[in-house]
Write a structure and sequence with these properties.
The chain is an all-alpha fold. The protein folds into 2 domains: about 65-140, no CATH class; about 145-255, Pectate Lyase C-like. About 45% of the residues lie in helices and about 0% in strands. It has helices spanning about 1-10, 15-90, 100-115, 120-135, 235. Helix 2 runs antiparallel to helix 3 and helix 2 runs parallel beside helix 4. The longest helix has about 80 residues, at about 15-90. It is elongated, with a radius of gyration of 37 Å.
Length: about 260
């Protein structure tokens, strides 16, 4: 009976009245929800803006630090270059000069100190400076860490002195290294692709996993070098000057 009465009352209302009722209820619902939803949205927006601001500030700080480090490295290199030029202009570097030993020791000490502070790119610039000035042939830079250097392709580093240095994973692709000396150095995982290493000296060097694809090793010396797992062909090895005591790519050792 009550059910029939309820249905009858519902049917007495027009469609327009029902739409109006539903609209009013919807408005009341929105009014009730907005005070809850809007603060949450504003809070999320504020948090997002805060995080974005922090990210921007962090990136700016990081960029500033990198720029500062880069500037410091360049200042160190510039000062070294100026000091080296002053030494060259002031002192006689002929082999019979009595000042040679003392001055060259000062230059070597300063060179090693600066190399430890520079980034890889500027280390190469310093080595090029030593090579161009002729000082590289007069000082010993052994034991310095020159790992991961990438030398510019098609460069001339003939007679480069890389004796007893740590130089893992360096890139010497398409470079002239005629008569260069890499003896006693650790050069594992390095690349010598398409380079001219003819008459170079690799005695006692560690050359594990090095890549010699299309590299000219004519008359190069590999006595007691470690070429384990190196990418070098039998045809290339047949052109070297000597392999006495060397460990070959397959792990076998050449008789002395």
């Amino acid at each position: 009976m009550l059910k029939n009465k309820f249905l009858k009352n519902c049917l007495n209302h027009s469609l327009f009245e029902w739409i109006n009722l539903i609209s009013n209820l919807f408005i009341l619902l929105i009014i009730g929800i907005l005070p809850i939803v809007l603060p949450l949205q504003q809070e999320n927006l504020s948090e997002y803006q805060h995080q974005s601001s922090k990210t921007i500030v962090f990136n700016n700080d990081l960029s500033s630090i990198q720029s500062l480090h880069d500037e410091q490295h360049q200042i160190i290199l510039n000062n070294y270059q100026q000091d080296l030029m002053n030494f060259i202009l002031k002192y006689d570097f002929s082999y019979n000069s009595t000042d040679n030993e003392r001055i060259l020791l000062i230059i070597r000490t300063k060179t090693l100190h600066v190399l430890r502070q520079l980034d890889p790119f500027r280390k190469i610039s310093l080595l090029q400076l030593l090579l161009d000035s002729g000082i590289q042939y007069r000082i010993n830079i052994s034991h310095v860490d020159l790992s991961s250097l990438i030398f510019p392709q098609e460069s001339f580093y003939n007679q480069l002195q890389f004796i007893n240095v740590l130089a893992r994973n360096i890139s010497l692709k398409n470079i002239y290294l005629f008569q260069s000396n890499f003896s006693y150095s650790i050069l594992d995982d390095s690349l010598f692709l398409n380079s001219n290493c003819s008459y170079a000296d690799f005695r006692y060097a560690s050359l594990q996993r090095t890549d010699w694809t299309n590299t000219d090793v004519t008359q190069a010396i590999f006595n007691n070098a470690n070429l384990y797992q190196a990418k070098i062909t039998k045809e290339q090895l047949a052109k070297v000057q000597s392999l006495q005591g060397a460990i070959l790519p397959n792990g076998s050792t050449v008789a002395v």
